[in-house]
Amino acid sequence: MSLRVLIVGSGGREHALAWRLARSPLVDHVFVCPGNGGTAHELKSTNVDISATDFPALVSLAVANNVSLVLPGPEQPLVDGIEEPFRKVGIPVFGPSALAARMEGSKAFSKDFMARHKIPTAQFKVFKAEEVEQAIEYVKTCGFKTVLKASGLAAGKGVLIPETVDDAIAGLREMLVDHVFGAAGSEVVVEELLTGPEVSVLAFADGYTIVPLPAAQDHKRIGEGDTGPNTGGMGAYAPAPVATPAVMDQIMKEVLQPTISGMRKEGFPFVGMLFTGLMLTPSGPKVLEYNVRFGDPETEALMLLLSDDTDLAAVLLACAERRLDSVQVNTRPGFSVSVILASAGYPGSYAKGKQITVGDLPSGVVAFHAGTSQKGDQVVTSGGRVMAVTAYAPTLREALDLAYAGVEKVSFEGKAYRRDIAHRALTAEANKPGLTYAQAGVSVDAGNSLVDAIKPLVRSTRRAGADAEIGGFGGVFDLKAVGYTDPVLVSGTDGVGTKLRVAMDAGIHDTVGIDLVAMSVNDLLVQGAEPLYFLDYYACSKLDVPVATQVIKGVAEGCRQAACALIGGETAEMPGMYHDGLSIPHSFPKTALNEYSVGDYDLAGFAVGAVERHLILPQPNIVAGDVLLGIPSSGLHSNGFSLVRKVIALSGLTYASPCPWDAQTTLGRALLEPTRIYVKSLLRAAQAGLIKGMSHITGGGFIENVPRHGGVAPLEMARTFNNGIGMVLIVDPKNVDEVIRLLREAGEPDVYKIGAVTAASGVHMQNLDAWKV
C-alpha cells in the first residue's frame, strides 16, 4: 500500500501530524494546504497554497494527485462539512460529518446531547439573543457560580468566567446584546462553574470503537501561574499524572463509550479524533466540552508519545474505513512536553515577519512550526503562536528540561513563552503526602465503626465457655466449662453460595447471616455434635458499615438459634477484588439500606462443635429397614440458587414482584427466607442415642411452584432441591415414636416418615411424577 495524504491546515498541529505521517512506511507523500514554514521542509511533504476553506480546490488537488486519505486539522472546515465533498468523490476523510461536527460547532447541541445520554457534565441552560432578560434572571437565581460560553465557534476564546453575579450580567449583555463574539455568541450556554484539575483526552474513533490516548493538560492563560487572558494554548504535557488509570477507566466507561454509542444511535456516527475536555471534580470526571479534531498544542506532545510500532497512517485509515479494532494504538512509557513560543503582544496585536533561527536541538527535541511562513530563503513569524518546542523523556522533569533547552535554541525578535509548563503536576508531586491506607481504598475508621456497631450483637450470643467479646487477635472458648466426658471436636466451614447474589440484587441483607451459620452448624449436627462457637469472614471492596452490620446481625441471630457463641471474625476490605457499586434497580422498594448503590461482598463461616465419642454419627449399626424421618425445610435454604435465578429470569419476574405463592411479601424476601437451624429440635434426641444417622439436605424447594413456573424436570428437581425436606434422620423402627415425641417437645410439630434404608446402594426416588402438571 502506498498512501498519499492531504493535510488541511497551517498550524503546529498540522506540522506534528505531517512529521509523524512522514515516518510511516505506508505513506508515499503528504500534501499540506496551505502549510507553514516547517511543513515546507518536512520529509515527504509539499505545501500547496490552497485555503482550508476552499473545498472545490482541495478536492481538485486530491483527485489530480491520487490522494487516498484526507486529514483536516482545524475545526472550522469540519463544522462547515469538508467531509462531504471528498466522500462524494470516493476519498476517505479522517474526520466527522457536518452532523457529527455539531458536537464542537454548537455547545448548546452538545450539552443537550449529554443530557439525553446521561453523560456527566455541569448543570446548564441555553439562552438565545432575544432571551437576555431570562438569562440574567437565571444567573441571579441558579444558586451557583457560572461560566458563560458562546455556543458557536470562537477560536477557543468564547468563554467568560465571571467572579460575581454583576460580572455575569455584564458578560451576558456583551455576548447577547453587544455580540463581542459575533455570530458564535448569538446563543449562550450558562453553566455551573466546576472545580478541579482539567484534562484533555484525545481518542481515535471509527463510529463503533474508541481508543483514547494518554490524557494531556493544556495551559490556556498567557501568563505564568495561569494569569492573564486566554490563548489558543501556551503549552501542554502528557500523560497528566492526575488522570490515573482508574480515572481513565471511568472516563472511558462514563463518557467516551456512551458518547460514541449515543452519536451512532442518533444517526450521526463519529469518525475521527474526539477531543474531550474534562474537569476532574470531587464527584468524578465531568465533560466541559467536545472538540472534533486533534487539539493544539496537545497533538504536538502526543505525537512524540506514540510508540514506534504504532503507524499513524494505518490508524487514521482504519478509522476512516470503520475498522479501528484491526490496528494497534500503543504509546511508549515516559512524558512529552510542548512549550509554545509566541509573538510579543499575543493574544493581542503582534508584529509579523520576524526572522526565525533554529540552532542544533538536543536529542529528543522537535520544533514544530505553527505561525511561520517561508519568505525567500528565510522562515519568518506569521502568527501569534509561532512554534511548539516539544521533547520526550522518561520522566516529566527530564522532558521539561529538554524542552526548555530546545527553547533556548530558537531565536526571533519578541519571543515570549511560559516558563512554568506542567507546574500543576510538579506542585502536586512536591506536595503529595505519603500514601495512606485510605488512599488505597481501605477505611480503618469504617472498620472501627463496624466493630462498635456489632459488639452488642456479639454479646447476645454468650454461652457457657465463651464470653463473646471481640477485639482480640483470636477467639477463646473454655471447653472444660461445657462438661463433656470424652469429647471429640467437630468442625465445619461453608458459605451461602449464589443466594448471596439474590440478597445483593434485592437489597435485603439481614437474613444471609442466618444462612451462613445454618450451613455450618447443621453439618456439625449430622455428626451428633453440639455447636460451641462460630467465626465469620466478610469480604468486600469498600466497607459499607450499615450493610455489613445487617449481615452480622443475621450471623448473631443464627448463633442464638444454634446456641453457639460468636467469638470472632474477619472483615476484609480489599479494593478492586469485588464489584464496587451494584445499582439497585429502581423497581425495588426503597429501604434505609437500598436507597444507594451497594457493592458486592462475600461471606464464609467456620463452626466448631463437640460430641461424646460414643455418640458420633453415623453409628455403625444402620441396617435395612431403619426408618427415614423427614424434617421440613423453611424454603429454598442455600443451594440451587443458580438454577433459581435462571428460572426467575425466564419467568419475567423481578425480586420486587409479589411472591406468586404469598402475595403478602415480595419474591426476593420469600427466596431469602433463611435456612432452618435444627440444633435445638434435634440435639436432644441425638444426645440420647436415639438417632443412628442424619443427612443435611442442603438446598430448598419451591415444592409446588418451581414445577409450575420454571419448567424444571422432576428428576432435576430431586437432584437440585430438597423439595421441602431440610434434614433426614435414620432411626431404628422401635425408636420412631420416641424420637417423634422428643422432636415435638423441642418445637418440631411436623415430622414425616419419608422412606426406609434398603440393602441397595444409592438413593431411589419414587413418585416423581406427582410433581408434573
From TrEMBL:
InterPro entries assigned to the protein according to its UniProt record, in alphabetical order: ATP-grasp (IPR011761), ATP_grasp_subdomain_1 (IPR013815), PreATP-grasp_dom_sf (IPR016185), PRibGlycinamid_synth_ATP-grasp (IPR020561), PRibGlycinamide_synth (IPR000115), PRibGlycinamide_synth_C-dom (IPR020560), PRibGlycinamide_synth_C_sf (IPR037123), PRibGlycinamide_synth_CS (IPR020559)
Coiled-coil blocks: none
Keyword annotations: ATP-binding, Ligase, Manganese, Metal-binding, Multifunctional enzyme, Nucleotide-binding, Purine biosynthesis
SUPFAM superfamilies linked to this entry: Glutathione synthetase ATP-binding domain-like, PreATP-grasp domain, PurM C-terminal domain-like, PurM N-terminal domain-like, Rudiment single hybrid motif
GO CC terms: cytosol
Record-linked SMART domains: GARS_A, GARS_C
Domain ATP-grasp residues, every copy: 111-321
UniProt pathway annotation: Purine metabolism; IMP biosynthesis via de novo pathway; N(1)-(5-phospho-D-ribosyl)glycinamide from 5-phospho-alpha-D-ribose 1-diphosphate: step 2/2; Purine metabolism; IMP biosynthesis via de novo pathway; 5-amino-1-(5-phospho-D-ribosyl)imidazole from N(2)-formyl-N(1)-(5-phospho-D-ribosyl)glycinamide: step 2/2
Family classification: In the N-terminal section; belongs to the GARS family.
NCBIfam families for this protein: purD
Protein name, UniProt field: ATP-grasp domain-containing protein
Species, as recorded: Rhodofomes roseus
